[in-house]
Amino acid sequence: MLLYPEGMVRLNESAGQILNLVDGRRSVAQIMFDLRQRFPDALGWTTTHWLLSRWPMPSTGYNLKPENQPGPPFWLLAELTYRCPLQCPYCSNPLDFNQQGEELSTMQWIEVFRQARELGAVQLGFSGGEPLVRQDLEELIRAARELGYYSNLITSGIGLTEARMAAFKEAGLDHIQISFQAADEEVNNLLAGSRKAFAQKLAMAHAVKAQGYPMVLNFVIHRHNIDQIERIIELCLALEADFVELATCQFYGWAELNRAGLLPTRAQLQRAERITNQYREKLAAENHPCKLILVTPDYYEERPKACMNGWGSLFLDITPDGTALPCHSARQLPVQFPNVRNHSLRHIWYDSFGFNRFRGYDWMPEPCRSCDEKEQDFGGCRCQAFLLTGDASNADPVCAKSPHHEVILAARIDAEQATQAIDALTLRNERNARLIAKAR
Ligand code: FES
User: Fold this and answer.
1) Is the CB of 331 under 6 A from ligand 1?
2) What's residue 37's pLDDT?
């Protein structure tokens, strides 16, 4: 109920949830981010996009035909570096991460942030590799705050200290997301390729809470940890997490290489869904603030996801060397992508070949072209289509209407029969990257 001097308004549930967040401290971008975390199914990117298109942004002065004009690149992901002290076998970085060009300098990154903000970006993620490796991170955070971004540090926690965390807060960082490999120290450290990883993550998760950041934990879920889903959730509750993302592996980069050893079986997945739902109900009944988000793998779906909410629609990724991508996995596609060293972001976002390659519907072959669901899923994921069929313009084979759907069915059968031990996974490190490059 909203009371005001002349009367009152009874708010519906959605309006009430939104108004609860309007506290005079959160920005519009932050409110939208919080709502997306709390209601991942109810309020999707499409709605956010609609809201943003009505939110006053600095004018682009750009003059495209209205029917062709993409919205602003709302979400900027800055992959600051491919360097990382850990070796996760499901890393989405490219297999040849060690052969990429020189990292952008501090000033070049700040110029990227400035240009993206001018185009309308409101949320900035610092990612990698491990972004903490960059000694200029505090300076980059400060610049992001001055430009008006809602900023998010996506980190393994390795290299973080309480002092550094406090400095980031003072510089204006809004949010830290710490990723874990497992709730079990031994499995966590085996997957991370580091004996100290688990203890450090625990310490930093406590520190995140103590310093008043929203507490967001991320677990990548796969066949070697999915059966411990209760332990994972219990650990998150013990750490007083506000949001928990239980993200089953998506198969790009190193995860694609290790797919046979990572894809859970359908029975494993169904059990994890059942237990997560039981926890959700219990937490809701207790009015507990923790929100659990379980992201299921595409491989057990019959329709593809609207990857990135459509190509070049909202998401702009800048890789360590300045290559601009419409998604963090697009580097593996046989498409020429522009670099911020050579082009303005305005040109990249609106005019470049790479960003226009899969916009709209004209590029689609059948069955997507005449499909009445194409406006919901945009034909699915271009990277998955390329990896599984060899042609990025094909329908995502996850779709049961795809003529290549049998590759997904075969992967499900493989998952039932897989016997690969956890220590047989190929870790993401320079040595393995060299061996892979040599073998190709
Ligand atoms: Fe690249 Fe889906 S991950 S388009």
Assistant:
1) no
2) 61
CA 103 – ligand 1 centroid, Å: 23
SS3 273: helix
Task: Encode pLDDT of 54-87 as tens digits.
Answer: 343 333 333 344 455 788 999 999 999 999 999 9
Extract the tokens encoding 50. Answer: 């609609």
> 202: Cβ below 6 Å to ligand 1?
no
Give the Å distance between the CA of 7 and the centre of ligand 1. 50
d(CA 411, CA 394): 18
359, amino acid identity: R
Condensed to tens digits (0 to 9), the pLDDT of residues 173-216 reads 999 999 998 888 988 898 888 888 999 999 999 999 999 998 89
- The answer to whether residues 223 and 418 touch, using CB atoms and an 8 Å cutoff, is yes
Best residue among 45, 251, 307, 398 to mutate for probing ligand 1's pocket (most ligand atoms within 8 Å of CB) is 307
Centre of ligand 1 from the C-alpha of residue 248, in Å? 16
CA dihedral 40, 46, 50, 52 (to 10 degrees): 60
How far is Cα 208 from Cα 320, in angstroms, rounded to an integer?
26
Helices (H), 239-323: 253-257, 259-262, 266-285
Report how far residue 303's alpha carbon sits from residue 91's, in angstroms, rounded to the nearest whole number.
25
Whole-angstrom distance, CA of residue 205 vs CA of residue 203: 6
CA of 49 to the centre of ligand 1 (A): 19
Q: Is the separation of the CB atoms in 257 and 95 below 8 Å?
A: yes
**Helix, strand, coil content of the chain in percent (nearest 5):** 45, 10, 45
pLDDT in tens, 282-304: 999 999 999 999 998 999 999 99
- Helices 162-171, 137-147: axis angle to 10 degrees equals 30
Q: Which of ligand 1's atoms lies nearest the C-alpha of 330?
A: 1
pTM for this model (two decimals)? 0.83
Task: Compute the distance from residue 385 Cα to the ligand 1 centre, in Å.
Answer: 9
